[in-house]
## 1
Amino acid sequence: MTPWVHIPQLLSAGITIGAIYALVGLGFVTIARASQIINFAQGEFVMLGGVITFSLLKGAGLSYPLAAIVAVISVVIIGFLLHILVVYPLRKTSIPILLIATLGASIFISNTTALVFGTLPKALPSFSGNLPLLIWGVPITPQSMWVLGATFLLLICLYLLSHRTLMGKAMEASSTDPLGADLSGISRNLMVFLAFGVSAGMGAIAGIFITPIFYTSYHTGTLIGLKGFVAAVLGGWGKNSGAILGGFVLGVVESLSVAFIPSGYKDAVAFVILLLILHFRPKGILGSPFIDSRRW
Amino acid sequence: MVVIDHKEFRKRDFLYVVPFWLLSLIVPDPHLDHLRKESRFRRRDLFYLGALLLLPLIWSDKHLHHLMVLAGINGILALGLSLFLGYAGQISLGHAAFFGIGAYTTAILTTRYAFPPFVAFWASALVAAALAYLIGSPILKLKGYFLALATLGFGEIFLVVVREAHRLTGGVIGIFGIPWFSLAGFAFDTYLKQYYLIWGVLIGLLIFSKNLIRSKIGRAFLAVAASEDAASTVGIKVAQIKLGAFVIGGAFAGFAGSLFACVMSTANPEAFGLNLSILIIMMVILGGMGNLYGPIAGAIFLTWLMDILGKYQEYSLPIYGLILILLLISFPDGFGTRLNIRLIYLISYFGRKKRRERVEL
């Protein structure tokens, strides 16, 4: 049997996972647009979103939407705490220290989750049944449609936030011209604080949408976070549209690779793409507003 | 005779002055090192050497010997990364991959092809350095977070390849039965012998690094870390210098990996993940950037800490993450710097004002 038979199926799976990478990548970009900090604990927000919703749904017996809302709010609070307790005290130090601090926070969050919620993998029920829809003969689960819809909706919200509100413009100003932002009376620390909240919320939403499709366990966050970052770099670092495009490209390529190479090597595909894109076009597909400036 | 001004210095201050003074013997001081006359061998080195030679003889605890063996291996890793991160100012999150490459080279050469460990030791460093050269030449044009991400990607690719290439590496299970390190018929088969072997190698590499950073190349490392543009205007080939630091770091990691494989007699992929890379960077940060003794002190400290945390079973990793963050917040530029600044203030009460003037705080 030739691998070509599976292509449509893999393509739809790739688009679904690509939407998740795009959401995670957007989280990275939101923080980077406000402060040029990269938060390597982003993947843990995704994991926390799924795990907290699961435990509220099964343990506390809340209804599905209520559990999801409570989970998103608690993850946003964790994002705020991450900024207050880790990033804010270290804001004036060098890149390696911030890098290791956020990685340390990631170790702390994932292993504390294992302690509190247990190490078993968790799977939420689908939002609207498991009966696959047939689109041009390709079976697509309703959950995939939910993921795509949520990505689209969040992208619109993020666009409105950064282009139509004063807060979004202030966030962007504090990154592109820190001195100018200070002079116009923008509190840069507050903007970074808010950006951490927004990015944590988006991570949590991604986690809730992904958990019915893939099992979520305490250690799955790190890899999803890294791949989301790869997606953001692939599409064009610092651009919302870049993160979206990069996410879909990465998801599709990674999913299609299963047809041609042993499936164990699937996790390496993202990083091979990363090394190639960083070597040949560090700006990413759509170009990046940050790369040309000498700070990177 | 030291005159103590009783108004400024009370008797109870001895309580913390004495521990601080003892710490100053152990903890290196990056602020003072470059101002002192550069001599190849200082009195403090003799103190370290004597302590190292005598420590296992005085304290004949098997567990301590094993811990110091691991600390020595981590020290070699931290020393290599110190040249790359501390001196040349570049970030690498894939250092554990070179460590793993060293370990697997030794494991494959000794168990499959019956090479003597001594030959495998040098081959490991060569293979690791060659891979560092191949990986480094495309990715070292990146800076900051992007370099970190690229090296992290390399580390992840290494792990995936090791897990999947069953025929070569034994997959997730790894390779067993690597022989002890032996040299001319003398096998290093106890922890005590391994202790002297590994710290001997570490001292050799330390002398190499000390000479390297006092050479033209070492000065170029510092220049590249300070400003790549300024370095290139004075004729330093920035790309070559960064690649050189990366390759030397990789070779050090290869040595360490080879010794690790011989000491543990196994090689499996769990030991070479991202967590080890984080730990090595942590050693360099805690030891102080731009400093050779510091990373080794950091390696001893963190190895000891990890051993203690290991007793707490499932609580060990959350505590580890917490301690990592707390250490970074309280000592962002290394133990040595902070402690020495406090120490200098205290010592200056004894009338040694000259030391205070030398430090620009």
## 2
Amino acid sequence: MKQRVGFMNNFENTNDLCLDVRHLKTFFPVYKGSFFKRKMGEIKAVNDVSFQIKRAKTMGMVGESGCGKTTVGRSILLLNRPTSGEIIYNGINIMALNYQEIRALRKKIQMVFQDPFGSINPRMTAGDVIGEPLLIHHICQTKYEYQKTIAELFLMVGLDPGMADWYPHEFSGGQRQRIVIARALSVKPDLLICDEPVSALDVSIQAQIINLLEELQEKYHLTYLFISHDLSVVKHISDTIAVMYMGNIVEIAHRKELYDHPRHPYTRALFSSVPIPDPRLEAKRKPFIIKGEVASLINPPSGCKFHPRCPYATNDCKKNSPVLRLCASDTIDKTQHWVACFLSTI
Amino acid sequence: MLLNVKHLSTHFISSKGVLKAVDDISFSINKGEILALVGESGSGKSVTALSLLRLIPNPPGKITGGEIVFENRDLLKLNPEDMRQVRGNRIAMIFQEPMTSLHPILSIEEQVMEPLIHHKGIQRTKALNACYQLLEKVHISDPPIRGKSYPHMLSGGMKQRSMIAMALSCNPSLIIADEPTTALDVTIQAQLLELLKDLTNEMGTSMLLITHDLGIVARYAHIVHVMYAGKIVEKASIETLYSYPRHPYTMALMASIPRIDQDCRKKLTPVQGNPPDLFNIPKGCAFHPRCPKKQEKCMEETPKLIPLANNHETACWIYE
Amino acid sequence: MTRHKQNNTGKFLTNDLQWKRISIVRALFKHKLSCIGLIIIMILLFMAIFSPFLAPHDPNEQNLYHVLEPPSWDHLLGTDDVGRDLLSRIIYGSRVSLSVGILSTLFSGGIGILLGLIAGYRGGIIDMIIMRITDTFMCIPGFVLLLVMAAAIGPGLLNIIIVVSVLGWTGFARITRGQVLQIRELPYIEAAAACGASGFRIMFRHLLPNSAAPLIVTASLSIGSAIMLESGAAFFGLSIQPPTPSWGKALRIGYSYLEIVPLFSIAPGLMITLAVLAFNFLGDGLRDILDPQFRGEIQRNK
């Protein structure tokens, strides 16, 4: 059995595991030519990612552009067909299901999208938008039940059911995101994949939506995969955080452990780059700023993909790719701390 | 005092009514200072920046009043020719979206040379050398080779560096940076802001930094002005603002942002309500529908900036 | 931040939720232009359906003693070149012109939009095949096809309808495909797929309404051009055979008598203009109503 990354020391208690992703790879082919297309190469958007999410917990996935975190979320939902690997949801391997079973699965795994303006059909009323999954999966038997469910969903996310006839452009950004959340919840899912749900919102509204997501998680025992580039938000809402870089997870640990003892140089740089809104603390912090930019995904660097930017890179790092190794177990909440770096004794 | 803005107002006229994007604001920047203008979308900070350079499109928008005294001249009274000499030369601007702010079919070196040739009248060959030096300064490697690339070939960080090079080319006294790093990754953001800070220190340039990120302000700015619904509601140095915020909006904002140094999973206290509809700004203080401390007076009269200690001003009736 | 506390839920559950949705027809009447258009179309349709009751004379009754007469009490618009009452011919002529316009647009629109949706949404090989078929059809010259059909099955109204449909669908297909290509990458289409929506649902509930604006404009223009095409074909005797009246034919024949009895040409010309205008207004109204901003406003001000 290859390495299993995640939460608990003992894996017998698989009932507690909501999602178990093993060696997920999603590659996008790059074609040249218009009529007869030749495959020129591949973009290895997700390159061997494994993690586990415990039921009713939040896994945060953080990283910059090109790291593949959005693709991981979309691969779990099968919006981008994974190239290989296993995605085990409640003990069932999603990759082995047929079309009907996948449709049924869509009731259990839902997504909250980033763009509150673009993820709602502008020509449907808010009530229609929220009610569409109910119609698709034939959840309600009568029209009365349908309208009642929609009213309940509105109340659940803090909106006035009287606004069910309004069109999306008549709502504010925060309200639109609530509609998106209500739509995701309409089919009573277990697992919610939140792809940058607050990034497009004003700062004063972000807190409202974050609180709403936390309340809903507590009330309905939802499991979240929270994907974002905003480290402060991810650290606030997640239990475990996975840091991704160019298609791989480079470090995964409990959020407090990750902040107190970051092992991978990229994690350290990431935390150091996020400014804290407190000038006295800022003056005392030592900045750890790495040079360079994310390399191209079509021609990634050899060995450890981070080595061109890493101040501690050795020859070994240029030749071999590090894999995730357990570096501390039994930290907070029995969460293990794994890191993919040859020099993780720093 | 390098820049002194007095009672600036910019209005936009549309079929739905008059939108007071900027409503009677006054502020000043000294030489070498970094002033941060903080606010959310709709607060008027970007419109302020465009008004300083008189880049407001005239049919819908109009600068309806005030003075912008820059290097002892009122920019609002300059004729178009003189104003053009100011833009890019004395005041430079860095925009938010490098993708759309760079000319897509001119190479980088052409674009960086353009202000040099136009404002300083330098010969092309000399301008090219100056351009390579500037690109070196903003840490773009191999300027003779990179300079010939087009914007779509570069990453976001590189594009923004080219913009910074363009902005610094004529050694301006003031740089206006309108959310310069919002569209970039956080590590690149840190690199670029450090770069901007170093360069402005080195050249003694002042900066007007416009952002919604209170973290960036804490790290890089000297003085902060908080804007809400077109007005400045609080002015302070950064130590004062973060230690003793006085305006309820500032306080609510600070309490609502998650911070990476705070661990306990305590709930964030969000700012209640929704951002104001700029066509129907509430009577009195624009923040009163969302304010936890509102009084009778707040619904009637618009508060003016009231001085507190330490160069700290706030526009709130509580402190009258 | 719930605005309604839990104990208020009952209020919403016991009463039937009064969803203040405004139906499309009512909305069309609220829009000024489309209201006018709808009224005119209803009058024209009434004229077409109830022609036998409305027409004062038999449109085919010739009276060679009263040829090319100006308007009189007996013949309100005068007579044509063989003494038939012009007013009756205009009233009966609405049947031909309206049926050509509406039917051919319906067929070409139906086929074109469906193929365009499939091509745009599916992409890949299916898109390529459909587009090459479209290109092929676009190369077929309309007039030649008319002649061929007239030779094969004899001239008539069906020919016109078939030809216009067969040539017209390509325009609809291309426009639909273009719109779909723009929209299909938008997040809400993906969100619908993530909710489990089937391809059909996505095409008809999401892609089509958001692509509709240029299609409506094309449809209303196509009604007008179909009517004009019929008039051109009528000139060459490839359309409906005499003595059946049609606006197009009367228009063409009337050209020769423009100085003597101008009404012969002008009256049918005016009717064609009125019909085309009415459909254009209706199209404008439909397009505006499908725009959520407009719809939201009229719903609120109800």
## 3
Amino acid sequence: MSAIKIRVNKQLDGFTFAILPSVREFVKTLFPGAHPANTLFISYDTASGFDMLQNGLEKQIYPMLLGVDRERLRKEVTEIEFINTETGKSEKVNL
Amino acid sequence: MTKKFNQYIGKAGHLAVMSEFLMRGWNVAIPEVDVGDDIFVVEDEKGLFRRVQVKTATATNRKGTFSAKFQLSIKQLSRTSDVMVHYVFITRHNEMWTKPIIIRQDFLLDHFENNKVGSQYEGNLTLYFSYTDDKVDCSGQDFTKYIGGFGDFQKIEH
């Protein structure tokens, strides 16, 4: 697996971040004792228009979703790919 | 089979699945407008909410086995939100419904993206299930573990 893929779904009142079961298994194998979540929902006021990547929110998100702190992640993973589930477009973030 | 009968079997499948959820102590509702989800399934006391998409098919008999074809929207499958859709597949075979095959959206999406299950055409994913004895196979993937997979719908005592 070249990058960890996190799926982002922008909804009316926030963002849902999700990883697929195969990613959860990959994370558990790479980081024994890690407890990756299925999804993480960040709630905002309705139609806030907030841009996640421009505001650095992703740096807070991936340790929580993957259940691994950033320092540990950096040792094994070079980048994380955020995929917009609506458009299919993705943005890669270097750790 | 006529197009009209497909509507009957579709509705019969919905009601059969709804009946199962009710027997497990979960409340059910059908959205007034038929777009997206087929059934809302709710645990009343704590307000736990699940979205369910029912897919029905009639079996095609083969030698000692049978198969069924299901179609679903790739767009809906790909849109992972905080409340995942549970896909429930049931097949009408020998005047009976098969046990439901229940696959949560993220698991099915994983099979689609990484195991290449099904075939794509015009925004839809077509899945072929092959039933042999007590086993179910889809594009070479063993789906037996999803038979009667009510794990996310634990029985509620009232």
